[in-house]
Amino acid sequence: MAQTAHPLMPSHDAITPCPTIDGHAAEIVRPVLVELLGPRIALRFEFWDGSAVSPPETVATVRISSPDAIRRLLWMPNEVGFCRAYVAGDLDIDGDIFDVVTALRDAKPAKPVSAMKVLPALVSASRRLGARRRPLPPPAEEARLAGRRHSLRRDSKAVSHHYDVGNAFYRLVLGPTMTYSCARFTDTDSTLEQAQEAKNEMVCRKLGLHEVAGARLLDVGCGWGSLAIHAAVEHGARVVGVTISSAQAELARTRVAEAGVADLVDIRHRDYREVKGETFDAISSIGMSEHVGQAHIDEYFATLRSMLGPHGRLLNHAISSVGGSKLGRTSFVSRYVFPDGELVDVGEVVLAMERAGFEVRDVESLREHYARTLRAWVANLEANWDEAAAAASEARAKIWRLYMAGSAIGFEDGGIGIHQVLGVIADSTGGAAMPLTRRGWH
């Protein structure tokens, strides 16, 4: 049987399409690309000396501007090494970021990739390129946390790494609602702003804020105050919002005052564990429990349960992963975006809420809505690229574009999900004061 030409090798078969490989760097690095990405990756790789590896069908170009990219991979032959090179500017992407992420997702190496298997090709390439030297320092944007995982101090550092990158940057990405969580698109032509308002209203209605005059709401991880403001303006709720991001707390207070609800909304720069001796009618936890972790999820819900009386409701809105997913040290998201972040299986969330004393009344997936939300955020970032890079940094803008595009693809293909889980505290007779149907929520 005639052999088909390797798609990343020069071919002498005029019938079989093959990539063009020319010049020094491309020929040296090609074996590394095959080990890492397989023979049929739909990306063109251009190198600092003008050479290129170009498969017959490509969707975008990866420009490698320095042998330092190979040097970084030599010392970290995984996702982190690639992303360090990207963040540091040793390589860049020319083309649609979603096409690039999809191509990387669909890459099919001939054998399972491991550091030990790819290392020989990396050692050989780095030696021939003069890049086999001591490791380069990681980019400044990489998280460096110390102390006990999920302690008050370490959690504060982790949250600060993600959120304290500049309110101006987030305003450009998130838009005027400054809502950093999944929107809810009620129809095909909803704008991002309309969808975020729809999500806030759905949360308020699930929590029954429209049913109780002056209901008292605790918004855990309140962000820049969007839900708190909506609850106060639309339902007259009295809201305590807590965040351990100083930048969020500062702007949230300003937005509360501008909305004219400073008498109803109290924004505190505080950890939820430091809220003592207060009782609420409802608690919202929107995009918060991902920072808590599987090992502490029972403690989290027990703490929130202690702040609710009979008929009190909790809405937990969180990204989920089947079987759970702790972001390891070889994860780009853990190193650059959500240090110490964990995705908890929605089934475990339901069980943990039940163990804490909640009766779970509703579970809803918003997976497709988050994919659309993220695509809108990427569009905002790219439309305001120069201003966003000036507000944070070019490296930070690149991190957020890659992270949001990768997350959008993950929601679209079902690799990750997002669920709202609504729980209530029944009274001693089993009464829960819940509506009989979902009609009032939608």
Order of helices and strands: EHEEEHHEHHHHHEHEHEEHEEHEHEHHHE
Tell me the Rg in angstroms.
24 Å
Low confidence ranges: 1-19
* CATH architecture classification name of the largest domain: 3-Layer(aba) Sandwich
What is the number of beta strands? 14
Mean pLDDT: 89
The CATH top-level class label of the largest domain: Alpha Beta
- Largest sheet, if any? 7 strands, mixed
**How much helicity do the residues have?**
40-55%
Task: Describe the 3D structure.
- With 442 residues, the chain is of the alpha/beta class.
- The protein has 2 domains: 20-129, Nonspecific Lipid-transfer Protein, Chain A; 152-441, Vaccinia Virus protein VP39 (Rossmann fold, 3-Layer(aba) Sandwich), CATH 3.40.50.
- It is 41% helix and 17% strand.
- It is built from 16 helices and 14 strands.
- The protein has helices at 24-37, 68-75, 79-88, 97-105, 115-129, 152-163, 167-174, 192-206, 226-235, 246-258, 297-305, 332-336, 346-355, 367-383, 385-391, 394-412, and strands spanning 20-22, 43-47, 52-54, 60-64, 91-94, 216-220, 238-243, 265-269, 280-286, 308-320, 325-326, 342-343, 359-365, 417-424.
- It has a 7-stranded mixed beta sheet with strand order 8-7-6-9-10-14-13, with helices on both faces. A 5-stranded mixed beta sheet has the order 1-3-2-4-5. A two-stranded antiparallel sheet has the order 11-12.
- Strand 7, helix 10 (246-258) and strand 8 form a beta-alpha-beta unit.
- The protein is elongated.
- The termini are far apart.
